[in-house]
Each structure stands twice: as structure tokens, then as C-alpha cells.
Amino acid sequence: MSREWSRVKAIVWKDLTAERRTKANFNAVVFFAALTLLLFGFALGPDDQALRAAAGGIVWLTILFSGVLSFNRSYEQELEGGALDALLLYPGERRSIFLGKFLANLGFVLLVEAILIPAATLLYQLDPGLAPFRLLLVILLGSIGFVALGTFYAAMASRVRAREVLLPLLLFPMLIPLLLAAVESTTALLTGDAMGNAGAWIRLLIVFDLIFLVACVLAFDYVIEE
Amino acid sequence: MSGGIKRLRVLAITCVVLTQVGAFVTSPPDALMGHLQKIMYVHVPSAWVMMLAFFIVFVYSVLYLWRRNPLHDLAAASAAEVGTVFTALTLIQGSIWGRPTWGVWWVWDPRLTTTAVLILIYAGYLALRSFTDDEERRARWCAAVGVLGFINVWIVFMSVRWWRTLHQPQSSPSTMSSEYLWGLVANSISFAILLAWLIRERYEIAKLEQAKELDFEEAALSGTVQHV
């Protein structure tokens, strides 16, 4: 178990270091996210009330659209140098590759969110102070499910033709329960959760994350073997 | 083509024609919907066999991952393709019924929305199939996607139901007069036979396609065929 954990940590470190040293992907994704926030503002604004009401949905769609750009890359950099084959040759369980890439991608997406969400609160004049910890919980849970499925589907999509369009085509329909739960709970928490709806949606997020983390870890063996 | 498929085809078409005509002729106009109710005899069976088809995809995907028999992959793919057609039919028929009943072509009702998500999940499955060239890899990947997609159907349905509820209660034997019920049951059985025939037919075609691909590869390897 501890050996597996050290394998996972090695992959997380490798992926995040490669990202930190180039920064090319991170910068591009952050700018894309900021651009998307602005575009939604132009499309739905300038009415403050309308923007504030739609903010939960805008933020989560922006996370989905910008996050999906980064998943393929996590495998592409392996494929370019034939590094994936080497990674597969190392002894140990294949699932540590998945867990490592999942955690590295999760770190990446959370970092993007750390810039994106404060920007959204400013742009749309949101008040996250009503339930700050539960909001953070929703963001974390939503990101975990999103990144788990994204990492899983990118393992396939990054290795076929038309990967740019195939990944969202496979991934987004699967994410609809997660999107609904994340948007509904975020919107409820931003407006004080007067109806007490957020709890049920948070439970749905937890169930979704658990089911698909387990399913992705189990299915990854079949997807990655060559 | 083997005699079995021919017999299945004749049986499927005969059953569908007989039960459709039978249900149309014998059912009286509905108190509220009039003759519009008759779309139920194609809509509800389509929706049921659509779920059946995706369950078949799930079963053959699990079987493939377990046994690694390429024929199971072909069966799953055939069921996914036929299931997608029935999903599209279900959506179209639902819209045709919804327009006069609800006054709109589309509502964000749980079952409608879940059906729309379902068609997208399986469109993704079919896209992955067509974009992946290596046969063994395609089979493994699609089996994994088929299993995950099926797990999600129930979660999508529950989440959309929480999100919004508007659909009339599902037609069930307890809410329905027996004049309508027999037609619905008979047509559902006909549609199940129709589904079996279509999947079987698609499966045989898939086997032929695969055999042709193999022949071509062998010929190319032995140098008897030139690429054009």
C-alpha cells in the first residue's frame, strides 16, 4: 500500500513539475477561463440581477469548459516521447497511474479555480460570505467528480483521431448529474440557502464522486493495458 | 443469411403489423386525448426496448471485459446502434405527443431529459467506436464506456427528477383501462421481437464487416492486393 502510494506521489510530482516548468498550459487555460467569464457577462448582462442569478451556472460551465482543455494534455505529453509505454512497464498496479494523474489534474483544476472563482465573485458581485465552507466543499466535490471522469476519458480520447472534440463528447453527457448538483447547491449557497436545498445536492455530489471514482479506478486497468 | 434470421424477420414484422393494427382498431378514443392516445402504442414500446437495448450493451460489455470474446464486443456495438435509433424514435414520438398535449415540443421533464442525455451518452460511445482504429483496443474501450454509461443512466434520471418534475405519471397497468392495456402489452412484446431481429441483423453485418477487414489485411500482408 505504501509502495503504491509512493508511485502515486511520484506521478503527481512528475506531472505537476512538468506543468510548473513550462506553465504554457496553465496560463492559456486561466486566460481562457477569464475570457469565458467575460463572454457570459456580455451574453447575459449587463443586468446585475440577471448575472447574479445565473452566476452558479456560469462558474460551473466555465470550470467544465476550461478544465476539459487540460485533460488530454496530461496524456499527450506522455505519448509524445513514448513515455506512457515506459510508465506502463514499471512494476505495480496500473491504478496508481490513474490515481497519480487524477491528483495532478485535480491540483491543476483547483489552481485554475483559485483564480477563476475570485474573479467571478468580483465580476458578478457575488457574496460567498453566507456559507463559505460549504461553498468550498461544493467546489471540491464537484471538481473531484469532474476530474475523475475527465482523467478516465482522456486516457482514451487522447489516443485517437479528433481527440479535441471526442473528449467533451464523451465526458459532458456523463457529467450532467454533477453539473446539476454543483450548480443548484452553489446557487443555493450564494443566496443563503433559504429553502435548505443545498444539503441534498451535496449528498448527490458525494455519491456521484464515490461511484465514479471507484468505477474509473476499476475500469482504468482495461483502458490503459496495451 | 441463415434461415434463423429470416424467420425472425418475418416474425418481427408480422407481430408489429398485427399488434399495431389490433390496438388501433380495438381501442376507443381516450376521454381526454382522443385518438392522440394511439401514439402510446409506438412511443411506450420504443422507450421500453430502448432501455432493453442499453441493458444488452451493458451485459455484453461486462461479458467482453470478462471473457475477451470479440463477438461480445460486436453484439454490444450492434445493440448500442439499434438502441440509439429507438432512443431517437422515442424522443421524436414524445415531441409529437407533447405538442398537442402540453402545447410545446419540449419540456424539461425528467424522463424526456434523461432520454436526451442517454442519446448523447451513446452517441459518444458510437463516436469513440468510429474514431478508434485498432480493433482490440476499440473493443476494450467501448466496453468500459458502455459499463460507465449504463451506471450513469439511473443517476441522471434521479438528478433530473429532483431538478424538475412535470411529466404525467408513467402509464402503468393500474392507471389504465384494460381496453388500452392489452394493446400496450402486445405491442411491447412485438417491439422486443423487432429489437431482437434488428440487433441480430446488425450483428451479422458486423461479423461480415470484420471478416472482410481480416481478409483484406491478410491479402495485404501476403502481397496479393495493392492499395489503391
Protein topology:
The complex is a heterodimer of chains A (226) and B (228).
Chain A: H1 2-22, H2 24-44, H3 48-80, H4 83-89, H5 95-123, H6 132-157, H7 163-174, H8 176-190, H9 198-224
Helix pairs in contact in A: 1-5, 2-3, 2-5, 3-5, 3-6, 3-7, 3-8, 5-6, 6-7, 6-8, 6-9, 8-9
Chain B: H1 3-26, H2 40-67, H3 70-102, H4 110-131, H5 135-163, H6 178-222
**Rg from Cα of chain B:** 20 Å
Largest sheet of chain A: none
Largest interface: A-B, 32 and 29 residues
Mean pLDDT of chain B, to the nearest integer, reads 86
Radius of gyration of chain A: 18 Å
User: Which spans of chain A have pLDDT < 50 for at least 5 consecutive residues?
Assistant: none
Shape of chain A: globular
Name the overall outline of chain B: globular
Task: Provide the descriptors you would attach to this structure in a database record.
heterodimer; A: 226 residues; mainly alpha; 9 helices; 85% helix; 0% strand; globular; B: 228 residues; 6 helices
